Amino acid sequence: MDTFFAGEIATELVKELVKVIRRTVLCRPTAEQLKRNVDALLPIIQEIRHSGVELPQARQSQLSDLAEHLHLALELARKAAASSRWNVYRSMQLAHRMEKLDRWIARWLERQMPAHVLADVHHLRVESAVRLDRIERHLQNGAPATAAAAAAMTMMKPAAVGVAQMMEGLELGGGGGEAAAPVGAAVRVGKERVKEMLMATGGSAEVVGICGIGGSGKTTLAKEICRDPRIQNYFSDRIFFETVSQSPNLESLKLKLWEQISGNMVIGAYTQIPQWQMALGARDKGPTLIVLDDVWSLSQLEQLIFRLPGCKTLVVSRFKFPTLINNTYELELLGEAEALSLFCQAAFEQQSIPPTADKKLVKQVVAECKGLPLALKVIGASLRSQPPKIWASAKNRLSRGETISDSHENKLLERMAASIECLSGKVRECFLDLGSFPEDKKIPLDVLINMWMEIHDLDEEDAFAILVELSNKNLLTLVKDAQNRAGDIYSSYSELSVTQHDVLRDLALHMSNRESLNCRKRLIMPRREEGLPRDWERNKDQQFEAQIVSIHTGEMRETDWFQMYFPKAEVLILNFSSGMYFLPPFMDTMPKLKSLVLINYSNSSTVLQNLSSFTALNNLRSLWVEKIVVPPLPRTTVPLKNLRKVFLVQCELNNSLKGSKVDLWMTFPRLSSLTIDHCIDLNELPSSICEVSSLESISISNCHDLSELPHEFGKLGSLQILRIYACPALKRLPQSICQLKRLKYLDISQSLNLRDLPEELGNLKNLEKIDMRECSLRNIPRSLSSLKSLGHVICDEEMALLWKEAERHIPDLRIQIAEQCYNLDWLVE
């Protein structure tokens, strides 16, 4: 969205600069230089704009900054063009201000833009690879090679998902078998009916609904409709998909929808739509479709509907809203044959019951799923490769779920719980832990893996194996290609995440809440509220037995908390949306706390209060901080003697690091892993970090202003993993890096301005792998030929030629040429 408005502002700015160049002598040189920079900016903005990639918050923020500075430049250019040529002082003043803006835009072009373009290329490359792989497997399995599939492979464009394959796209899991068989004649009919509603004329067609019980495929149907060529053509690709959920930030969502619908960008620190913009109304951009997924209440929906000319809204919900929506399509459950086909795909990886299976028993299990696609996939995957006795046991458990409740969805949860009970102990516990995270939010892979390691005493490899098993059983969804991208021994989980269907989250909460409140192993707020739940307050005088505590609120002041006692808590997850947040005072009652997760979901960074509560966390081993203003550490900071891992994501760090005189090695004496990601104000690391001799892994990614590493970097004698990924402002590595005798893995990929490596890099005798893809190195040190331990180098094709000599001296070296996509013409398509 920001690229759209940045492009419009930049186009208008060029016109005004031309006027300045013609009319104003004193401003002419500055205006000409500014025009050259903006001319260079325009085509790249268009490429990002048309790439179709949903931008993460950090990149949206950077593009908002760009749009704001372009807007300021436009205002200056207009003033300069209108200024009298005889007003010398005024012209010089405007020229000086334009120079400052020109320098800012030039820095943005040099540092931020390459990272944006490469990120889009990488994202689309992964998308294309996944889709092509799916087509190839489909052809290899004997499916007819349709002309559409062949054309897709030839043109390297994403293949459209057919309506008949829609139920395969429930987005439940990664490795749970190949595409499901074509099912759902009723679904095909439903898709056509909803399309007719959306393309109809008249006031009653402004808002259209899709409703059905949880797990029936509503979201999948909505996404399939959005991908339909007729719908895309009708709305000229102006289709915007937003997930609402049970506890949305309504003002932020309204603001986002307004910008998308109206074409009016809201610049500045607004938390709601400015009245003057509402009065101006929307620009005429043609027909627009807004899809609101997972809507829970009429009051929320009423605030999110914009009744503007040409704007239509598709509402996806478990409920009907007859007072607001006249046309609603109610999604039907699968018939017997369709249900059996989908179940067999999940259980046997084929469309029918195999000859070796007990047909009667299979059909009995299918019947207990009551035609619900989600239940069929989850239960089918859980029984894959199991012996007949396990099948019989599952059938009995499913049938016993009938009498639990009169509610269809509660009966569904009990049936699906049977498949969870069949999991091994730790796998089942890890599944239940997933309910600790907010609905419809991505769960960072680092957070999840680390939490499992701490509370279930797992090695990282075992925790990852459980993640893959849950994915294979359709109990969670890994991001595209996450299993392959995170499975390497030196891989980073940065930017990888997990999602879970809201019905599966409900299932985890349903199973976790069977015990009384104070006795639960997981104390979880199921949805965002303004304060703590009342039943927690009623039970606050008794201690809570919870091992995991998860809280989801808005702003919390000191008076909003009440004291509670958590003597067994090992994980505390604090989710919030606010500019100020007072840390809970009951952290003092958590002597066993090992993992603390702080995630801010608001649009701006949060300032934390009550930082003194950290002094009681003697056993804290892991700290995840996201979108927080990290305060300067005082000299009196109490050491966190057991803290091993620190993750700083989208944080504001400069104020905490500038001029810091704290001895980090004394504050974090056992710190072994430091991860810094998308901290865009990070210019340099403090030299005191080089005194933390316990550090074994440092990962710095997407920090676009990081220009250098400390000269004393070689003091980190225990360092084994160093990632400096997507840091385009970094121009050199310190010479002392060659003293890191234990270093095994070096990642300098996408460091676009890194021209040379230290000549003595060959001293890193334990180095096993180097990733230098998408770098601009002029050469590589000759000393690298002596790295006998080096077994794997990832680089671009040109760089591979420079490794030929080293390859002759290192017999086991494997040079992997990374795919290159520097031609960006296809992004516009």
From TrEMBL:
Residues 1-147 form the RPW8 domain. One of its GO terms (biological process) is defense response. Keywords: Plant defense, Repeat. GO terms for molecular function: ADP binding. PROSITE patterns: RPW8. The keyword Secreted does not apply. SUPFAM superfamilies: L domain-like, P-loop containing nucleoside triphosphate hydrolases. InterPro entries: Apaf_helical, LRR_dom_sf, LRR_R13L4/SHOC2-like, NB-ARC, P-loop_NTPase, Powdery_mildew-R_dom, WH-like_DNA-bd_sf. Gene3D superfamilies: Helical domain of apoptotic protease-activating factors, P-loop containing nucleotide triphosphate hydrolases, Ribonuclease Inhibitor, Winged helix-like DNA-binding domain superfamily/Winged helix DNA-binding domain. Pfam families: LRR_14, NB-ARC, RPW8. Coiled coil: none annotated. Belongs to the disease resistance NB-LRR family. PANTHER family: PLANT BROAD-SPECTRUM MILDEW RESISTANCE PROTEIN RPW8, TIR-NBS TYPE DISEASE RESISTANCE PROTEIN-RELATED. This is Disease resistance protein At5g47280. It comes from Phoenix dactylifera.
